[in-house]
Amino acid sequence: MEATESAPAAGAHVAEAKPAITYKRHGDKSIWGIFITLCIISVIELYSASSREVAAAGVYGPIMRHCFLLGMGVCIVLLLERLHYKAFFACAWVIAFLSMGMMLYVTLFGEIVNGARRSFSLMGITIQPSEFIKLSAVLVIAQIMSKSQRPKAIGVRTQGVVLSAIMVLLFGGLLFKQGLTNTILLMSISMAMIAIGGTELKKMLCVGLVYAVIGGGVVFAKFMSEGDSKAKGDEIATTEQALTTDKRHGTWQARLDRFFSDVPKYEEEITAKNRQEMYSYMAQANGGVFGVFPGNSRETARLPLAFSDYIFSIIIEDLGFV
To answer: Distances from the Cα of 227 to the Cαs of 221, 222, 231, in angstroms?
Structure first.
């Protein structure tokens, strides 16, 4: 009789057991603090770096536009924060396919900026699919890694690592024509996710080797095809083709040549090709150790894309090395 009565009590205890980690519908305070700090810095520094934008859109034009987009971003963050992580798990492949679709659209019909198709406009807002591709890589690899854990041992099954590498190569192939920097960032993010997923070191080294071989082969094939074209005297038919094929590769080669040049930067002549780079060096040098304080930047008025691609230089000029 005593044994019979104790069984339901044990079952009731099991039913009432709580999970080891309690899910709470609010964000981490440290992450929120970092996010808010970066938002404040972005408002100050973008306004400091918007001399050219001010000339075209008025004093308050750039700051109002930035605050509007920032507000939209905060609303999206608040919305996503309320979602359980299972929602991201379920939508990972949907987001990945949408990102790849946007990348294919940009590759064919996107706006050409600095010799590459990087974005398209939607309701007056510039969309860069390359950022969604990076997010997709994080979500997809996280899902693959979670499903590929060994049940009775530490590590990840080989098929999970292979599938992750294939997806990253697919994403990288879509990103490659947009620029080498985005491709390298994607590879770095993917390797970090594979490591966080618990992949053994030898498997990570194999993935890295495969990346290196494929990347080296693509670059070598590019050099060979260009050499053959020059030998035959082939010419690119249209300006648009020139912008979308050879210019990015020429940009990479020129950057490497300048980086490994023996001529000191202060002795180099400022030309149309190195103007951005040289003015960005001047901005950083002018910032010194403690900076000139936001709003006192000297180079923001003449540095192209000071408010976007080259804003780091203005931040260093404003706030200094510290």
So the answer is: 10, 9, 6
User: Look-up: residue for tokens 């294939």?
Assistant: 166
pLDDT tens-digit series, residues 57-100: 677 778 888 889 899 999 999 888 888 878 888 888 999 999 99
Task: Kindly report the average pLDDT of the chain as a whole number.
Answer: 79
pLDDT tier for residue 247 given thresholds of 50, 70 and 90: low
d(CA 148, CA 136): 18
Segments in the chain forming alpha helices (H): 2-15, 29-48, 51-57, 61-81, 85-109, 129-147, 158-176, 180-196, 201-232, 239-244, 246-259, 275-287, 311-319
Nearest-angstrom CA–CA distance, 237 and 227: 17
Tokens of 61: 């034009």
Tell me, what amino acid is at 282? M
Type of residue found at 264: P
**Torsions phi, psi for 118 (to 5 deg):** -120, -25
pLDDT for residue 59: 72
- The helix/strand/coil state of 264 is coil
**CA-based end-to-end distance of the chain:** 76
